Structure formats: C-alpha cells, structure tokens
Amino acid sequence: MDLPAIPKQGISRAEVLERMRGLQEQDVRWKENRAFSLVFHQSDEHTEFLKQAHNLFFEGNGLNPMAFASLRTFEHEVVRMAASMLHGDAETVGTMTSGGTESILLAVRTYRDRARKLMPWIRQPNMIVPASAHVAFDKAGKYFDVEMIHAPLADDFRVDVKALARLITSDTIAIAGSAPNYPSGMVDPIEELAALAERRNIGMHVDACIGGFLLPWAERLNAPIPAWDFRVPGVTSISADLHKYGYAAKGASTILYRSMDYLRHQFFVYVDWPGGVFASPSLPGTRPGGSIAAAWAALMAMGEDGYLRNAETVLRTARRFMDGINAIPGLRVLGNPPASVFAYTTTEPGLNCYAIADRMAEQGWHIDRQQRPPSIHLMINPGHAEIADRYLEDLRASVAYVRAHPGAEWSGSAPAYGLMANAPLRKLVGKNVLAIMEQMYSAAGEAPHLDAKSGGGVPGPVLQLMKLKSRLGDLLRWRRRR
Ligand SMILES: Cc1ncc(COP(=O)(O)O)c(C=O)c1O
C-alpha cells in the first residue's frame, strides 16, 4: 500500500488550503444549524473576533508563565471571572484546561492524591457518580486507578441520592453530580449531594462543563435552576467549559476548587529532571496560547449583557423545541430539563425511536442517538432558533412515516442501534469498536484521508462499522424470525 509521506517538495499553500477545503465539505453541516452537538457557534462576527484573538497568541506557550506573562494574566483573570460568576470567594482557585475531559481528569486525580496524603489508609479509592455522569469520569477512573461506581437515577432522570449514599464506603474519596448532565440535561440534586459529602467528609465535584457558563445567566432570567454552585456548602470543585456556552475557541475549560487545600494536589513538580526543575499546573506540557487568549477575549467581549442575551435566546428556543416535541403524540422529552440540553423518546410500543432517527437523518439532520432509554439528543445554540419550526415539521412527518410503515425499524441503521443497546451483546460491540479503532490508527492509515479531487471512497473503519451494524442487523432479523 502506498503510505502517505511528507511531500518531497512542499505544495503551494494555496493548493494545500484548497485540498483542506475539499475535505471540509465532508464534515457535518453545522453551519446550516443541522447539528446539535460538537460546535458552539455564537455568531459569525464573534467567531471572526475569536480568530483574531487566537492569532495574536498563535505561537504563545502557556507552559512557562514567566516567559509568557500575558498568558498568565489571561489565565488568572479567566479563573477569577469564572469564580466570581459561580459565587466563589477570595479562597476560590483553579486553572484553565484544554476542555471538559481534562478538567474532570484533573479533579479525579486531585481527589485521589489528596486522599493519599490525608487518608493513607485508603488502599483502593473509589468515587460515586450518577449513572448519567459524563464518561470522562470513567476515563479518569481507568487512567488514575480510581474505581468509578455508578449510582442509579430516579424516575426524574436525576441521581437517586439515597441510593448513592448507600454506595459510599470507607474507600470513597469523593462524589459527583452534574449541572446539567449530558444524556437528559437534568441538574442533579446538588444541595442534597453536597450535604451528604459534608457529612461524610469527602469531596464533592459538580460537573458543570455544559452549564457553567449558561446556568448563572438562566438563573438571572428566572429559569427554575436549583442551587448548584459554590453557594452550596460542601461543593468542593466545579468544572465549567469555556468552549461550550462560554463561546470561547476550542481547547478551553476551567477547573475550580473551593480553596488551595485541593488545588495544590493538582500541581505536578519534579526537581530531578536533567532538563531542569519542572512545574506544571495541569495535564499537558505545552499549553496553546491561542485558546487561553481567545477565552479571555470571549469573556471580555461577551460581557454579562452578551451572555444574558444569548441565554435568553437559547432558553426560549429550547423551550420551543421541548414543547413542540411533547405536543407530538407518541413522543416525550425525558424529565423536565431546565435549560438547553434535552433528549426525547417514544411512548408507544410500536413506535421505534431509532427508526424515527433514521428518517430525520435522511432529511439532512445530524442525529445523536442515545441508549438507556433509546432517545434522540439535542443541545441548543442560538442558531437553532432559525430552524426550530423546520425540525419539528420534519419530526412530525418522520413519526407519521414510522407509524404508517410498521417494518421501518427493520431497515436502515435502526436494527443495529437497537441491538447495540442490547445488554447481552455489549461485550461483542465493545470488542468490535476496539478493533475498528485499531484499524483506524494502524500504520496502514485507515484514517479518512480522502483525496478531495477524486472524491475518494468509504474509509476502512467506516466500512467496518457499517459491516458491524449490518451483522448485528442480520442477527436481529434472524432472532425475530425464530
Ligand atoms: C456534562 C459534560 N461533561 C464533560 C464533557 C466533556 O467535555 P469535552 O468534550 O470538552 O472534553 C461533556 C462533553 O459534552 C459534557 O457534556
């Protein structure tokens, strides 16, 4: 196989850019507001401004705050602004990170190392998190050898606090709640969780990666937001993403702690390296200056008035979607989410959620399918105000289609999604997904490096995934016939 190598002679920059634009055409159509995740777009003007701020510090490196005092100032001020928005005080401290996952990884590691110091009798630390907590907690558990125990949810899709309390052991170093969680958009009962953490003298992390830069404004707009930030005694840390509803450039989040008592355990210092004494506040070495600078610029330019205006549009639009969906017979929004994130499922036995998802996808919508229960996920941004009616119209038509075609759940990708959500097959699915990743990252380079001019073909890993889906579909049809 002809492996791509660095071209012997550099290609003209114009041609390189042209090829890149060609590849970009295969990406999700977020500019048409047809996607509900991955991109947080405030406005074209705001994006142009972020690019300028990013460019100014494009080559800056936050690794060394002495060399880049500007970046240190930005980080310090971003953390102070976030702390004040989340009702911290002079004791509240934190750092910027590259995103929500890094913020959560750091929080878990911080609680582990703090416990090692203060509770050395704990041999196998664990954390109790809601079953709806972001998967970054499980990643952190795996990376840092902290057992992640999932607490069940109550009927309203918030964590069941009593059930969570029963899972706490003498090895528990912290618990967590979300504000809001990703799968249903519900805010966990943070006050009750934090009171429990205080009673047990353990840490309490609030994952506000989604809500950190939205819920404070929603509260000011009188949305029914339960208390969740540093005003709640017992909350010891919060993750809040700048690159989501903070409308910063990608690669920016914050991890905040109630005091230096916690943050000091996040720092890494090594004095014996031949390269010199090394100190680092977060996971990476090199820290891209552009995303630190653009985050500061976003906060300064948006201001409270900008965030409030934005939140008003987002909340109003989300309500329009949720009311519209609940008004369609056979569909129901999960729980009663207070802000911008939610999911809906079907309420009639014959009405298959994944078949509806397929119909919506055929009409050009980028659909995020979920499991437990089967549902369709949405995260609202200002641009979605323009397409709400169109979406609801297409959704009504999709539901009508699936109802009129009882076999619809046996065609398209619906059977495969149904089967992937099926508990006994989870091991098989996991193994196949790992195999696909190995292929995607193998030396043969099955990454989707399509030649923009020829149009390329279906990349290997995608083909594999399609085969897996079709194999699962066959299996399902076989089981149905029997
Ligand atoms: C609730 C929640 N926490 C954490 C994360 C992880 O954030 P990131 O993708 O920036 O790593 C996400 C991402 O969607 C999220 O929804």
Structure summary:
The chain is α/β, with parallel strands linked by helices and 482 residues long. Among the domains are: 53-299, Type I PLP-dependent aspartate aminotransferase-like (Major domain) (Aspartate Aminotransferase, domain 2), CATH 3.40.640.10; 414-481, no CATH class.
Walkthrough of the structure:
- With 482 residues, this protein is α/β, with parallel strands linked by helices.
- Among the domains are: 53-299, Aspartate Aminotransferase, domain 2; 414-481, no CATH class.
- 43% of the residues lie in helices and 13% in strands.
- It contains 15 helices and 13 strands.
- Helix 4 (100-118) crosses helix 5.
- The two termini are 44 Å apart.
- Mean pLDDT is 92; it is low at 448-459.
- Bound molecules: pyridoxal-5'-phosphate.
Helix/strand order: HHHEHEHEHEHEHEEHEEHEEHEEHHHH
What is the name of the CATH class of the domain at 53-299? Alpha Beta
* Overall strand count: 13
CATH third-tier fold name of the domain at 53-299: Aspartate Aminotransferase, domain 2
Sheet having the most strands: 7 strands, mixed
Widest sheet: strand ordering: 1-7-6-5-4-2-3
What spatial form do the alpha-carbon principal axes imply? globular
Query: What separation lies between the terminal Cα atoms?
Result: 44 Å
Pick out the low-confidence regions: 448-459
CATH superfamily membership of the domain at 53-299: Type I PLP-dependent aspartate aminotransferase-like (Major domain)
- Rg, Cα atoms, Å: 24 Å
Are any ligands bound, and if so which?
pyridoxal-5'-phosphate
The overall average pLDDT, rounded, is: 92
Strand share of the residues? Answer: 5-15%
Number of helices: 15
The secondary-structure class comes to: alpha/beta
- Please state the second-level CATH architecture of the domain at 53-299: 3-Layer(aba) Sandwich
Fraction of residues in H or I helices:
40-55%
